[in-house]
Amino acid sequence: MERWTFNMIAGPDGSEHQVRMILRAGDDPAGHPTLQVGLDGIEVPVDAAAVDYEAPEWKVVLLFTAKGGSQERWDDLKDQLRSAAN
Q1: Helix 71-85 / helix 57-66 crossing angle, nearest 10 deg
Q2: pLDDT attached to residue 2
Q3: Cβ distance 1 to 24 under 8 Å?
Q4: pLDDT at 57 over 80
Q5: SS in 3 state form for the chain?
Q6: Could you report the per-residue pLDDT of 14-33, keeping only the tens digit for each?
Q7: N- to C-terminal Cα separation, the chain
């Protein structure tokens, strides 16, 4: 079973702006594959931005698709992290 963490990062206006996706593979948190993406589907460098809150995947996908991302892009991002874990 895959274990995922989806951390929401707020923009300057306080609304959801980006999500940091983490595939919790293995026992070492420093080695967990991680990426950060805007809700428009554009990947950005992982940074040290403060996490606003952790969200369930269904909520992140709703926000992601409402702000310009697509389900296909979401699935591609998850596959990218899966590949990095292997």
Answers
A1: 130
A2: 87
A3: no
A4: yes
A5: CCCEEEEEEECCCCCEEEEEEEECCCCCHHHCCEEEEECCCCEECCCCCCCCEECCHHHHHHHHHHCCCCHHHHHHHHHHHHHHHC
A6: 999 999 999 998 888 888 99
A7: 15
Asked if residues 8 and 49 have their Cβ atoms less than 8 Å apart, the reply is: no
CA distance 16 to 27: 29
Q: Return the residue matching tokens 């996490």.
A: 51
Amino acid (1-letter code) at residue 62: L
**How far apart, in whole angstroms, are the C-alpha atoms of residue 24 and residue 21?**
10
